[in-house]
Fold each of these.
Amino acid sequence: MIGIISAMQEEVQSLLDALQNCNTVEKGMRTYYTGMLYNKPVVIVFSRWGKVAAAATTTQLINDFDLEELIFTGVAGGIDQQLNIGDVVIGKELFQYDVDARPFYQQFHIPILNLKSVSTTNNDKLNHAVSFFLNNYDTYILKEERINFNISYPKSVIGDIASGDQFISSMEKIKSLNLNLPTAVCVEMEGAAVAQVCYEYSIPFSIIRVISDKANDNAHIDFSRFANTIASNYILGILEYYFA
Ligand code: ADE
């Protein structure tokens, strides 16, 4: 089956609403929802925020369910000035920007593994599905929501993602990330932790993030509005094509 994780229930709500033959299993304070989505067997779980919560959930998911691949989804703060609210990022390399074990390892390198980032898989197929979704955007996203969020031409990029246990909401922090990890286009709080666990268990991993805010002064307001309304409709639309 295919595992789908997000950090918040809001980010997968539309998938849970569409899930058929739904069963639930409770473990470690998480609820794992199994069932059929677009005729594919899936298991969906929201991990809660942060790298520890996401890593623990991923480990449980891999050990208790027979996964062929794992997809992480949710929102992110854009730190590349080309990205706008409503754009889609298909993750390429995942960095943990808060790992710093110098002088034993170089900055950002994961101890023992000695990797600066973890790579994703299935990008071509996902990229295709995202393009189909964006071409049929109005089927999934209400016109009034599009206007509310000032989304005119939503685009997608295949880009690097920086994860850490911080909600980023200042230009100062953005500048420091741009300087230290110049290829990272967005920030969030789970992806690279999930990527590391999938790497360690040899599970194919991919990640789709929708830009909810620009990691600036207004981030907390933009983030909440976006996550609570349209975020999960993106993944519902994208998976319809990905699973076809
Ligand atoms: N997820 C969405 N927006 C974010 C931000 N600004 N910082 C961290 N994680 C986020």
Amino acid sequence: MSNERQQERSEVLQSLRWENDALSLLDQRLLPEETIYLRLSTPREVWEAIRELKVRGAPAIGIAAAYGVVLGAREHSGTQDSWLPEVIRHAEYLATSRPTAVNLFWALDRMKAKAKTLSDTGTPTSEAVQALLDEARLIQAEDESTNRLIGEHALALFEDGMGVLTHCNAGGLATAKYGTALAPFYLALEQGIHLKVFADETRPVLQGARLTAFELQQAGVDVTLICDNMAGHVMSKGWIQAVIVGTDRVAANGDVANKIGTYSVAVLAKAHNIPFYVACPLSTIDLSTPTGADIPIEERHSDEVTFGFGKRTAPQGVAVYNPAFDITPNELVTAIITEKGIIRAPYNDNLKQLFDR
Ligand code: MRU
């Protein structure tokens, strides 16, 4: 096995932050080659950034959309009467950017509810815009602390020396900080626990190669990149003792939507008797969606498949099917790790109880 591991350690890049009255957002399409922060100052720019995967990962797109609402609310701060309808219009527009990750709708609902309270209490629009900004900042800060808790719960499932496979990027870049599935790796590093991480490259957009391998390597985590079709091979060699992934939406019955290829990894894990863990905040669990079959699956442009590596990799005009996510049925999920603890089957009951607690 070749090892091109970089030994220098540095902080994981922050995916987004409010800075100088605008949203400063790391353009993740350019990683790992270029680190460029974009300055977004309109809801439309935020919508495009989400749609084009400049920002991606369920919690991060929710946070970005929350700041998008602030930008929209600011545009209408001179009009007390139409302020609330305009804020709601911007939120509904931002909700059309991507369909699968429920954190987007969760964050927008929270911003709309806050705007409604502010409007109902007759708060002057200039103050209301500031209060919406505070709410977006709070969503971001809560995501960071939530992810740390998820990391602590997840780390309790791992032992020193274990090999752990992950798919896509559910790391600091996909969230406010730490990530969900990658959080235990950062905490393990802090505590001197050695985990050997295998990162699937995650075709077609290569979030595993461009983002997970990048952020873990930068932090000094022991990470080995593999192509997606190598996962079964490394499992058969006995190198993987657990799989952990993030998710874009968990249905009420525990079915899990995550990056395309996750389902195949779960089937492989089952075949090799390896536990398959899903890490997510409560904001990713959608009790109003009964099963995985009810989760809308985004289909993306065929170019992602036919121009995958910056050049044509398939014949012109070939039919392409490019779903961005798949559904892992709950029977393949060993446990769901949240900020409130570790949830196991039966998921219908246990997920509901989580919200009742
Ligand atoms: O298309 P993407 O890159 O937004 O997909 C991201 C994923 O599937 C992540 O695994 C998921 O959002 C969890 S992020 C903590």
